[in-house]
Amino acid sequence: MDLQTPPFGSLLRSWRQRRRLSQLDLALEADVSARHLSFIETGRATPSRAMVLRLAEALAVPAREQNQLLIAAGLAPAYSERAMDDPGMSAVRAGVDRVLNAYNPFPCLAVDRSWNVLQVNAGAAVMLDGVAAHLLAQPNALRISLHPDGLAPRIRNLAQWRHHVIGRLRREAAVSGSAQTAALLAEIESYPGGEDETADLGGVVVPLELVTTGGQLLRFLSTVTTFGTALDLTAAELSIEAFLPADGSTAEALR
Fold first, then answer.
1. What confidence score (pLDDT) does residue 2 get?
2. Distance separating alpha carbons of residues 65 and 72, to the nearest angstrom
3. One Pfam family of this protein, by short name (predicted)?
4. How confident is the model over 217-255, as pLDDT tens digits?
5. How far apart, in Å, are the Cα atoms of 35 and each of 13, 26, 40, 142?
6. Cis omega before residue 62 (within 30°)?
7. Which residues does residue 140 pair with via DSSP β-bridges, in sequence order?
8. Which of 92, 112, 123 has the alpha carbon at shortest distance from 239?
9. What are the distances in angstroms from CA 80 to CA 51, 85, 102?
10. CA–CA distances in Å: residue 171 to residues 116, 121, 245
11. What span, in angstroms and rounded, lies between the C-alpha atoms of 131 and 137?
């Protein structure tokens, strides 16, 4: 057990405060007594495995951070973590391949929780064309999208797209409590381009309007696919982002 792991009560209190809940609020949500919850937070009571998981569920703690809570309570983690090339991940790999290939010729990519690109389909080439080599060496979808050496100079509605992406990343940082996500957010916010939260408020979704290196305008709508019942951290934190044509001319150009 890592000696640097904070006591369980301190971790629990930080998650409760992050969710802006009082001890009574959390006690009611988790169906435990406020007195017992107070004893757990102060270290006067030791929580069982079932209690740790019940409190984590009430606080909507992500899977990776649930493991941290369990370890802090002196218990074994609930979720394993395998590499994508592990034999036990064969069904996940097959599922990702199937989804990526099904979206061709439209761009589609698989990313982890930190938006590192794990895999792309052939259709993604139109989005990677012209991106600086240093961004492709260890590709991160948000850096590629918003860095001045990436797609940013060719995104016609950059301020609007930045507002959408940064807002999503802010929510992820708040929900996860991840220092890595917070660091990525600070980096992305430092890129030039501004934010426009008012543009096209009457629309259906926020489009990505990308000008290709050949000068053609492509308009995309993005969708996200995740594994809904994952028990492994790699699978739980993996998402597949597809960019579908927002108009007939984009669909025709990609085909």
1. 45
2. 10
3. HTH_31
4. 999 999 999 888 788 999 999 999 999 999 999 999 999
5. 14, 12, 9, 44
6. no
7. 116
8. 112
9. 20, 15, 29
10. 18, 27, 26
11. 11
87-254 has CATH 3.40.50.2300 classification: no
User: What pLDDT sits at residue 154?
Assistant: 95
**What are the tens digits of pLDDT across the range 94-134?**
999 999 999 999 999 999 999 999 999 999 999 999 999 99
- Binning pLDDT at 50, 70 and 90, where does residue 200 land? low
Give the start-to-end residue ranges of the domains of the chain. 8-72, 87-254
Contact predicate 220/207, CB 8 Å:
yes
For the structural domain made of 8-72, what CATH number should be given? Answer: 1.10.260.40
**DSSP label at residue 155:** B
Closest-CA residue to 142 (of 117, 170, 124)? 117
Mean pLDDT of the chain: 91
Question: For 168, what's the count of Cα atoms within 13 Å in the CB-facing half-sphere?
Answer: 12
Alpha-carbon distance 219 to 75, whole Å?
49
Higher pLDDT, 193 or 14: 14
How is 198-210 classified by DSSP, letter by letter?
A: STTTTSSSPPEEE
C-alpha closest to that of 111 among 134, 143, 81: 143
